[in-house]
Amino acid sequence: MNAITANTSPATARQVIRSGGWPRITTGLCAGHVQANLVVLPRDSATEFAEFCRANPKPLPLLEVADAPDRLRIAPGADLRTDLPKYHVHRSGEVSEVDDVWEVWRDDLVAFLLGCSFSAEERLLAAGVRLRHLDLGQGVPIFRTSLRCQEIGRFRGPLVVSMRAVRETEVARAVEVTGELPFAHGAPVHVGDPEAIGITDLARPDWGDALPLQDGEVPVFWACGVTPQAVLAEVRPELAITHAPAHMFLTDLQVADLIERGVEEA
């Protein structure tokens, strides 16, 4: 297996992934660059889904809309059919996991690239916020909540969140740092009691790896780009494609540039 590290360029990492050399999660890779969630829908749903993204900017910070899988402004030379480690293919509510979507892709599909909280983790670490799941080499635990997205047309569903165990003394700093990153879901949507947002058991995430809290840690919840997958489970489109949770698309966008420009100009 070819190694991808924090120091690997996104273009090189995408080539490794395209060749099948990285069938793993992308947390911690390509430091300083924005990682993206992927949602692909038929063109007749695209306008409505774009409105859904704009109505729900916390879970769905829109980076780019692409009519072709291999002509991307935020990653020249990339191909969305091959350059993610794993994909989910959604067909009328049934989900399968595949390594590429070359044979699934159709000419009428439109791709949406959405910001990801993985892009915030380097900033949190630099600010002195410990992220224990990274120490353990795990993905973040991800949960459906009782909170609902703002409904637009056929698109409706629960807000999905990622949870990070943060030392109580570092929570305020984590909120401050991520509040500067709207393209990576921004500040947390909830801090503390998980039952207040409908999460009954932190040991049983809906996606990702469980992370038991240690003494002095607080659960902190950020809006998550897996939200569209929970939405698709309710909407049950004839066809949709997404990234597999935690297997993100590595863009050429620099986190520092987006902090200056803002997600609206991404």
Automatic annotation (TrEMBL):
Reply yes or no: does the keyword Lyase apply: yes
Q: State a single Pfam family of this protein.
A: D-Glu_cyclase
| Keyword line | Lyase
Q: Which GO terms describe its molecular function?
A: lyase activity
Record family assignment: Belongs to the D-glutamate cyclase family.
Name this polypeptide is given: Putative hydro-lyase
